[in-house]
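pls design
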């Protein structure tokens, strides 16, 4: 919405159209009682992005708030690795039903550490690309990058969950074979 409205009528219209669309989606979700939490977060995020664009007086300001996500993800991954608690393990192990003591399983710990490093690298590369596009004031490419990153993160999450599940199944099979 922001990119289309900005291209047609400018920044002010884009900020208003984005905020209005976010509010309309929120109202629709509240009436339907479906995914209300996601709608609230989306409305707040869209409004914050529109406010950032209005505050900076530039369309590229819309992308300042979303740039915080890869920055925060990179930092969280690096901090979790420094604390020897890879973020991928903390999140994914619960989802795939891995063992509670996964940190003491060398192979699982290493798998989650490598996964966390990959996520940190991808997040950092995303941030670097966004900063470069922001610096060049390429609003259209920033918008495209955000769409592509959304699809990429969905794929990365699915792939890492699938690989973690396979790793846990192999670890269980190995443990059962050793116990025989």
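designed seq:
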């Amino acid at each position: 919405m922001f990119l289309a409205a900005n291209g047609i009528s400018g920044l002010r219209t884009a900020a208003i159209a984005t905020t209005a669309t976010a509010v309309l989606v929120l109202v629709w979700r509240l009436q339907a009682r479906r995914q209300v939490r996601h709608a609230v977060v989306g409305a707040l995020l869209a409004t914050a992005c529109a406010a950032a664009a209005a505050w900076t007086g530039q369309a590229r300001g819309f992308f300042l708030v979303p740039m915080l996500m890869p920055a925060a993800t990179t930092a969280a991954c690096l901090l979790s690795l420094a604390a020897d608690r890879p973020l991928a393990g903390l999140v994914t192990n619960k989802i795939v039903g891995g063992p509670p003591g996964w940190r003491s399983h060398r192979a699982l710990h290493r798998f989650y550490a490598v996964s966390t490093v990959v996520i940190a690298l991808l997040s950092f590369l995303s941030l670097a690309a966004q900063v470069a596009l922001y610096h060049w004031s390429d609003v259209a490419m920033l918008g495209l990058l955000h769409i592509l990153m959304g699809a990429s993160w969905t794929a990365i999450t699915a792939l890492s969950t699938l690989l973690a599940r396979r790793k846990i199944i192999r670890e269980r099979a190995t443990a059962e074979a050793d116990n025989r």
